[in-house]
Amino acid sequence: MTNVMIEAENIRFAYGRHQVLRGVSLSAGSGECVAVLGPNGAGKSTFVTCLNGLRTPAPGSGKIRIAGKDVAALNRAEIARTIAYVAQDTPISRMTVYDWVMLGRKPYIRWAVSEKDTQLCLDMIDRVGMTAMRLRRLAELSGGERQKVLLARALVQEPKVLILDEPTSNLDPKNQYEMMGLVRRLAQERGFTAVVVLHDLNLALRYCNRFLFLREGREFAYVDAAGVTGKIISTVYDVQARILFDDAATPAGGEPRRLVSIDEVTQP
């Protein structure tokens, strides 16, 4: 792998005596989109909040590095200029869309908002399709619309790593595909690494190129698209799964598009 942007080595985390993460590693380069997958309670959200410094890994963990820098050695302002994080919960605020997105520039603003700050905010609001609502208050928006605003705010931080925790949970299918397509395009255009917690396996297969499967807090598999198998999915999710190939949706000269088919749920 060239130009490694994020590395996490043997990350462990516990709430008291309850082990949540039991040695999870990840490495990805600029422009890549990593899906973090697994059933509820597998440790996905805990893992990504360790990546961005919101949680401190347990003793015995390895380091988390962004562009070669140890996250543990960065202050909050440095982290905000390096990592952007979009959480599951969308805030309810009386602030306008524009003002909320501008908050993402806070790590860069010293005395006054610059022309670059203003233009970048307007550009990212436009990229997420919210220009017509830029003067609306967040409290007036739907959950899906607020999710788009949070993405715009994260993007104006100009991060090296963008972490999204279930960003499509409040979106209809059309907007799910639009958002993930936008994340993938911008990662490639701007050279950041996207790390995305998802539940929709087919959405992940379509837009991500690396896949971290967690099961009971452990790293079960970390593979590229070709390495995603029915056996992995079946074991991780306790289902009977197959990988199908959609030749009709295959790009010219590209690999056949993979689809996940769940045949039945494994009975406990």
From TrEMBL:
Residues 6-241 form the ABC transporter domain. It comes from the Bacteria. Keywords: ATP-binding, Nucleotide-binding, Translocase, Transport. Transmembrane segments: none annotated. InterPro entries: AAA+_ATPase, ABC_transporter-like_ATP-bd, ABC_transporter-like_CS, P-loop_NTPase. PROSITE patterns: ABC_TRANSPORTER_1, ABC_TRANSPORTER_2. One of its GO terms (molecular function) is ATP hydrolysis activity. This is ABC transporter ATP-binding protein. It comes from Actinobaculum suis.
